[in-house]
Amino acid sequence: METYQLLKELCDLAAPSGRERSAAETLTRLLDGRFDRMETDPLGNLLVEKRAARADAPTLLLDAHMDEVSFAVTGEKEGFLTFLNLGGVDPRILMANEVLVHGRETVPGVVTCMPPHLSTAEERKKAPAVKELCIDVGLPQERVRELLPPGSAVTLRAELHELSSGRVAGKSLDNRAGAAAVLLAYLNVWERIRNYNLKLLFSVQEEVGLRGARTGVAAAEPEECVVVDVTHAYTSDARREETGMMGEGVMIGIAPILDRGMFETFRALAQKQRIPHQIEVMNGSTGTNAFSIHNYGTGVRTGLLSIPLKYMHTSVELIDRRDLRSTVDLLSAYLLEREGAFGRV
Amino acid sequence: MFELIKQLSEARGVSGDEGEVRELIRGLMEPRCDRVWTDRMGNLICYKKGRDGSKRILVDTHMDEVGLIVSYVTGDGLLKFQTVGGVDPRVLIGRKVRVGERIGVISTKAVHLTTEEERKTAPDEQQLFIDIGAQSREEALKEISLGQTASFFTVCERFGEGLVKGKALDNRIGCAAAIRSAEHIPYYDTYYVFAVQEEVGLRGAYAGAYGIRPDLAVVADVTTAADLPGVPEHRRACRLGEGAVLIFMEGSTLYPSGSYDKLKRCAEKNGIRFQEKELVAGGVDAGAIQRQPGGVEVLTVELACRYLHSPAGVASLADAEEMEKLLCALLADPSLLER
């Protein structure tokens, strides 16, 4: 599958937290029946299963959240929409930015701003808060009330574009890039996996507090889980120790909540197979679904692979496709390694 | 009207680098005019013979747009830039731009990596950069060069009810109105000047008008509307959908009352919907033309646009038609030069 087309298809769709259906539908279509079982739970999590040859086999889960940072309409004022954040959209990108409002119909909008001619130098120094802004949809007040009631979701409006050096920029690469990695690795190996149940969780509501993964992991009941998400890539205005290098490979996570054995296996495989990789050291929750998954039930051995990404939570999130490739390669290698390891038990 | 505005809005023409939009307008004006040429500054001048050749009318619509200019490339391949024209840096983060043949994104480090202090203040242009995906200075310099301009990458489209959204609506809507007015034979000989460099201080209009020595000039430009919730009535300046905007003064021009009355009379006589601007803000080419040697009478027709000088302006198509009608009415009026 051509990765640019796949990313474009996944990123350009709108799947705000709590309304991830379009992402689930697209992923279902891309999987094209190559699984034994698929279900959607009441929260909207998409769970896919490739069964092991024997009934008592262990289960390995791959998780990638499919929701995106978004907003919700809270009301209407003079025909303009008031709104609030769902998840941490960077508030600095809002002024005059384009959005889509998903009400009874999907309507394009522009976030309001005072033009420089009418604002003071003092005002221009402040980044406006969400509550000071509105969304302009250019419709008469009655139509706005009828079409876009409170609760309507709002997503950033941006298409994925190719930059130079195989890099791409668009909205929602957090975490459609992770979902793409899970999908591609699964399709690489699924026919060869017999010694364990391989399950995929495309989870909902990560951006509002790692929520979907909690019911997803309960449905999957895994012994082991690999979470795939994105992490910050270095730019010269950021700190090197807080970021990974774009283009230098998948980031293998190590943190108190992550399984050290899995970390070592990832690292050994990457070294042996010469897969470009980097180590990401975290001291706490990791800020990913790993935090929702690792202590479920009697505990789940959990590993984390991350794709370096610049400009997180903006409409121009940027990744290097080679980092997606190395993530897919390492994840595929790991799934095959487990096939051997579980076969020996 | 919409199709024409879309074509013009999506063309590039940051001040001082108007080549692309100029060629587009040249192609549109050549079949409509008797003679078309470009002056030494890059102004596109289009002459259209009128019924009465004894007087000359100048129609000025600037064709440049606000944008960015690449000033430096960092070691890790990011482009530092300066703004061209009045751009609030707060509308830049997270936008796409076109630089040369490349697409770039404007950004700064992720909000997660900022300090509490950094989050409170809006980043200024020195903290922002354009990322074209290059990995090093050398790689970036293969794709772009210093001094290249970057223009917002925005699709122009119909918006809401009867509105249009796009970049550079200031002043491509004025250009569209002028181009359409050239369908009709004017009363007096008419020189259309699609002026360069308005956004950096009305630079092109000086040269454009000087060569023509007009008896009267009409300026069509787009102005700022703040008809938004939370803005007090007296700060809204003008409103979308209420017709062409007439002004008694702006930042660069005081219009003698005779001229302003003449403009309003013409609009009234021809049943053109108009509103009077309620706030003095911004300046237009009229100031440069008015104070040519000898002095020139100038009439200015404006159009209300929200989010001016941002990547996504919003304006009314009905207003654009009123602007065009007023321009046509002025050009058809034999009494235009009466005092």
List keywords for this structure.
heterodimer, A: 345 residues, alpha+beta, 8-stranded mixed sheet, 6-stranded antiparallel sheet, 9 helices, 27% strand, B: 339 residues, 11-stranded mixed sheet, 6-stranded antiparallel β-barrel, 29% strand
What does it look like?
The complex is a heterodimer of chains A (345) and B (339). By secondary structure, chain A is an alpha+beta fold. Helix content of chain A is 29%, strand content 27%. Chain A contains nine helices and 17 strands. In chain A, the strands form three sheets. An eight-stranded mixed β-sheet of chain A has the order 1-2-12-3-13-16-14-15, sandwiched between helices. In chain A, strand 6 (98-102) and strand 7 form a beta hairpin. The longest helix of chain A is centred in the C-terminal third of the chain and has 24 residues, at 321-344. Chain B is an alpha+beta fold. Chain B contains nine helices and 19 strands. In chain B, the strands form three sheets. In chain B, strands 1, 2, 3, 10, 11, 12, 13, 14, 17, 18 and 19 form an eleven-stranded mixed β-sheet that branches. In chain B, strands 4-5-8-7-6-9 form a six-stranded antiparallel barrel. Chain B has a two-stranded antiparallel sheet with strand order 15-16. Chain B is globular. The two termini of chain B are 33 Å apart. Classes of the chains: A alpha+beta (345), B alpha+beta (339). Chains A and B meet through strand 7 and strand 10 of A and strand 7 of B.
